[in-house]
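Q: Convert this sequence to structure tokens.
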Amino acid sequence: MSEYLNMKEQILLVGAGGHAKACIDVIEQEGRFEIYGLIGRKSEVGSNILGYPVCGSDSDLKFLSSKVSNALVTIGQIKTAENRESIYTKLINYGFDLPTVVSPNAYVSNHARLGKGSIIMHGVVVNSGAVIGNNTILNSMSLVEHDSSVGNHCHISTGARLNGGVSIGNSVFVGSGAVVRQGIYIGDSSVIGMGQLVSNDYTICSKLPNPRGKE
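A:
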């Protein structure tokens, strides 16, 4: 009987690149799910990623929804969120559940809210009053301070810092080591480069200064 009580739910990972490897480590450390396999390109089917099979491509998602109930988008995101958004919508339409995955090495306040299908990676801090949207990546060592909000389909990259009361729209990328001053608004689909200091509100039509002083 105890053997059955200890069975984990399975989860399908959609994406088989470098970001998927980082997600696998977080999922293993969290310990809630057993990884069923990964979805990759047709040329990747039959290979293994960190010991887990690439068991299909996008065209197999509908069939696999009858075999495994949980899924996570494990495609990376830099310049655009389009691929992650498209896959997320497919998974919802096929009836998958999209759990939120949180590293045991992250700190998430009990007074913060996390959206479905998001992943909170190692060393992340999410402080009180913060709200994180759906299908969003908070990458390793990033900080989301008190009362900040991050929209859907965003990627807050490694070591980025969002100070208190920051508001991030949907489909935004914030590069590694970027620092956003308290109270700043960043509009939908914006791309904040690595190491940028954001001290004024920013939209896709804005232009940040180059930290190296060159165009």
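The CA atoms of residues 44 and 54 lie 7 Å apart.
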